[in-house]
């Protein structure tokens, strides 16, 4: 009898409690800034197999092994309203080289509620390493087929990253964002010197196209 009374009381109170919870959730979002400057700090990792395509030779290749690379990004932007926003950002990422992406960001939130789906797109240029580095030797896909005592310069290139995610408000000023993105990145590797001799031929310049998956978390200050 006591169990029946407990379940009847529980079922009766649930409809009464839910609107109150909803009211608290709505009040939680009252007075949130919906227009103006915002800052976003995003961290995560970029993953995929190490094979990077380029015509004629696979220079950056680890035979299909899954790689994980860190990514840190800082974004400054402007909210036009509680759905539309745009900004610019920069960051640091680690592949077989250090990359420093600089990009424009445009994003749209479907609804600014307790759980807010959104999508965004980043487009810009990732700068690579500015200094050349020494390598004792490695194989080539063309004559002379082996480069000994070579200096190599690893550069970046065009980047494109559409992403989707979910935004959760932590308080009136901070939001937590969980994101998944596709990353297209172009790279360039150039052999500038072999055995003490400068290289001036185009065949020693290699262009790559990487396709990766990005998973990350971000904190947004509005």
What separation lies between the terminal Cα atoms?
53 Å
Assign the CATH architecture of the largest domain.
Beta Barrel
CATH class of the largest domain: Mainly Beta
Q: What's the overall average pLDDT, rounded? A: 80
CATH topology of the largest domain: Porin
| Number of distinct beta strands | 11
Largest sheet: 8 strands, antiparallel, barrel
Structural class: mainly beta
Instruction: Give the SSE string.
Output: HEEEEEEEEEEE
The total tally of domains equals: 2
Gross geometry: elongated
Helix content: 10-25%
Number of discrete helical segments: 1
Poorly predicted runs are: 2-26, 58-62
Q: Compute the gyration radius: what is it?
A: 25 Å
Strand order within the widest beta sheet: 1-2-3-4-5-8-9-11
How much of the polypeptide forms β-strand, as a percent range? Answer: over 45%
Textual characterization of the structure:
It contains one helix and eleven strands. With 222 residues, the protein is mainly beta. The protein folds into two domains: 1-30; 34-221, Porin (Beta Barrel). β2 and β3 (84-94) form a beta hairpin. The longest helix is centred in the N-terminal third of the chain and has 27 residues, at 2-28. The termini are far apart. The relative contact order is 0.18. Mean pLDDT is 80; it is low at 2-26 and 58-62.
Write the layout of secondary structure elements.
Elements: H1 2-28, E1 36-49, E2 66-79, E3 84-94, E4 98-109, E5 116-127, E6 133-139, E7 146-155, E8 157-169, E9 174-194, E10 197-198, E11 205-221
Antiparallel strand pairs: 1-2, 1-11, 2-3, 3-4, 4-5, 5-8, 6-7, 7-9, 8-9, 9-10, 9-11
């Amino acid at each position: 009898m006591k169990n029946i009374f407990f379940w009847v009381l529980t079922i009766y109170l649930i409809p009464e409690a839910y609107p109150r919870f909803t009211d608290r959730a709505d009040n939680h979002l009252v007075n949130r800034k919906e227009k103006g400057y915002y800052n976003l700090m995003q961290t995560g990792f970029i993953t995929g197999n190490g094979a990077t395509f380029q015509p004629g030779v696979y220079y950056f290749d680890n035979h299909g092994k899954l790689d994980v690379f860190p990514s840190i990004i800082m974004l400054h932007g402007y909210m036009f309203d509680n759905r539309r926003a745009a900004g610019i950002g920069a960051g640091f990422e680690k592949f077989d080289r250090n990359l420093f992406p600089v990009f424009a960001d445009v994003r749209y939130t479907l609804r600014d509620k307790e759980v807010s789906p959104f999508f965004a797109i980043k487009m810009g240029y990732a700068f690579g390493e500015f200094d050349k580095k020494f390598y004792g030797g490695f194989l080539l896909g063309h004559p002379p087929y082996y480069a000994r005592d070579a200096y190599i310069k690893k550069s970046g290139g065009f980047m494109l990253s559409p992403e989707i995610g979910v935004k959760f408000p932590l308080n009136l000023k901070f939001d937590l964002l969980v994101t998944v993105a596709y990353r297209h990145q172009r790279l360039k590797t150039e052999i500038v010197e072999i055995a003490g001799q400068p290289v001036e031929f185009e065949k020693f310049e290699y262009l790559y196209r990487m396709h990766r998956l990005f998973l990350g978390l971000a904190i947004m200050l509005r």
